[in-house]
Amino acid sequence: MHSSPPAALSLLALLALASQPCDAQQSRPRWYRGNTHTHTLNSDGDSPPDVVVRWYKSHGYDFMFVTDHEFITDVAPLNAALGTDGKFLVISGQEVTQRVAGATHPDGWRQAHINALGTTTVIRPFGERNIARDMTIAATYSRHVAAIRTAGGVAQVNHPNYRWSINLSDLVTVPDSTLFELWNAHVFVNNLGGADSAGNRMPSTEALWDSLLTRGKLLFGVASDDSHSFRPEEAENPEATRPGRAWVMVRAGSLTRDAILAALARGDFYSSTGVTLRAYSADAREIRLEIEPSNDRRFLIEFIGRGGRVLATATGTTARYTMNGSEGYVRARISDSSGRRAWTQPVRAN
């Protein structure tokens, strides 16, 4: 498993930017489906890059990032062979495989991986064997996010519950507008949280996200594959991390590297494991959404605010929430009757 907004922008300004009608930011925007976390034989995936890219192209994706560990896969030949202007795009990146020494952790270290989306040079983890022994997790996150942004990329905190590694205190200083992997489709990352035999409880990744939002942080929630397994013989293996299980829908004016990165950085996307939105709009007064109906599936729409509290619910395929100013923030979670979900980004209630 192994470009950022200017620093002078306030949290309120960032939230307002994220919730502006998209036509004010770009011309003729549309939704593009993509994956932000993918591995190939260049690190610990099981297939070469062209096989991996061909899978995503043939399964209806518009873009994907290749994020091998400490390796930048050259996407130019992949785009030359498989890319199509306005229809399919491969973007470079890296998973920075940071570990931090932790004497009380069963492994002896905790995992603090972070994706560098859109970068073209390797960002090295700190420490011998990628184990930082004189830094906190919070410090590694802050320094890696800064390095990723300096390199022209977008940072994404990966699978915080992997090996039960990340606590709320590790994340409270992560810079605003960083992406946060609230749902990672790898089979061993503990998205739902849980308690050990001593009763020590770790929250779900979604609850952790709400705790950060409640504290005034602006992190954008991502769902991704973290795919490693593409061989046909792995198709029925329940422990294989297959592609196509979680993705983002990005609203951008064009299918280009810069447009996709800019939309991710301002939070103009939603995340999904199988629910598709036909329409979505949000500002500081109101959120509206419409779900793409599908056969006999039924939908539950929940509007969630400060503390992870459910503020209102709706059924059917359309919903609207009007802010009253006391919510802190509002985001939507949509669940269908087969267990698939979608999550929208938080909007600050004035």
Which short descriptors sum up this protein?
2 domains, about 20% helix, Immunoglobulin-like, about 30% strand, TIM Barrel, 3-stranded mixed beta sheet, alpha+beta, about 350 residues, disordered N terminus, 14-stranded mixed beta sheet
Q: How is this structure best summarized?
A:
This protein is an alpha+beta fold. Helices cover 18% and strands 29% of the residues. It is globular.
Report on this structure.
- The chain is of the alpha+beta class and 350 residues long.
- The protein has two domains: 20-273, TIM Barrel (Alpha-Beta Barrel), CATH 3.20.20; 275-350, Immunoglobulin-like, CATH 2.60.40.
- It contains seven helices and 22 strands.
- Strands 1, 2, 3, 6, 8, 9, 12, 13, 14, 17, 18, 20, 21 and 22 form a 14-stranded mixed sheet that branches.
- The longest helix has 14 residues, at 137-150.
- It is globular.
- Mean pLDDT is 93; it is low at 2-26.
